[in-house]
Amino acid sequence: MTPAAARRPTILDVAARAGVSKSAVSLALRGSPGISDATRARILTCAEDLGYRGNRLARALVEGRSALVGVVLNDLSNPYHTEIVAGIEDGATAMGATTLLTHGQRDPHRTVLQVEMLLGLNVEGLVLVGSRVPVDALERLGRTLPTIVVGRLEAPVPGVDTIANDDEAGARSAVHHLAALGHEHVAHVSSSTRPAALSRRRAYLATMDDLGLGDRAVVHARDRLDGTEEDLDEVARRAVADPRTTAVFASNDVAALAVLDAASAAGRSLPGDLSVVGYDNSTISRIVRPRLTSVDQPRPLMGTLAAEMLAERLAGRTTDRHEVLPPTLVVRDSTAPPAARVV
Predict the structure, then answer these.
(1) C-beta separation of 129 from 84 below 8 A
(2) Does this UniProt record's set of keywords contain Transcription regulation (predicted)?
(3) Helix extents (H) in the chain
């Protein structure tokens, strides 16, 4: 292929092919009035024949808008986060916007850098999936452009909308489910010190107290904000190593998967010897064996709701909006009465 053939077609090439001016091509591509339907159709046909793709950033500079939505994930390896993004993309498409996705890699500093990169691309709004952005950065964003956080913050930030689930209700449903099956020695595996994980931990302890099981409550925690997978594996091993423990409630599905792996390595059968409940009801809860009982967060709904809230902000809403969605326990194969334990 020659260099000339490889050159990307420009608006001038379209104008030459259609026999019109550059401004006429610009009007046709934007769908603006000022040219006849026949001329518009000829221009669009020529653009398609040439394989012309407009320079979105250049148009953004001219028009003052980009129709771009920036999305920053906290953890690309967690299906809970990626399933929320699918909902955001659906909602963004419905509002005529395109999604730019980037990954914070569970690092607050990197997350801020990714946000700055998106701002440099002239995004019209931001959706942050996770709560690892420092408060001072969130405060600046709240004053700068529409910003939605899908996750639980320690406290509201002016100008920033949030979508979270009722962590306390979800944790209570998990502990009550295990207690109703007859489990008394229920341990909790907590994967982080983020607000949502801490709320689930507190609710676990309070519910065990309410059930008269407070003296049997045990928390195995990865008490670091940015702990490694090896840290979580060690926490899971400690949880299953206690022979008195007949059930584990994990703060998310990734932590529950670590418990399942540790139980298998320790020779503890599931659910006969150990019942496990996760949190999020992500894809892995349905494909792992035994299939995981998990507290469902409506991930696609959370994503589309984030896009909806962003559209409201762009339309002029100035009051902050905070949505807390109710979770639902989905019972599968990883939980059973302790009487079924293999001795």
Answers:
(1) yes
(2) yes
(3) 3-6, 11-18, 22-30, 37-50, 56-63, 79-94, 108-120, 135-144, 167-180, 195-210, 229-241, 253-265, 283-287, 299-314
Q: Can you count the helices (H) and strands (E) in the chain?
A: 14, 12
The tokens describing 277, both together, are 């409940």
Ordered mean pLDDT values, 10 residues apiece, the chain (343 residues): 57 91 84 86 88 59 68 87 91 86 86 91 91 88 94 94 97 98 97 90 98 96 63 92 96 96 95 96 94 96 94 92 96 88 40
Domain enclosing residue 21, as ranges: 3-54
Token digits of residue 211: 């059930």
Whether residues 160 and 246 fall in one domain: no
On whether both 124 and 147 belong to a single domain, the answer is yes
Residue 14's CATH number: 1.10.260.40
Q: What is the 3-state secondary structure (H, E, C) of 252-269?
A: CHHHHHHHHHHHHHCCCC
User: Do 82 and 231 fall into the same domain?
Assistant: no
Distance in angstroms (rounded) separating the CA atoms of residues 104 and 140: 18
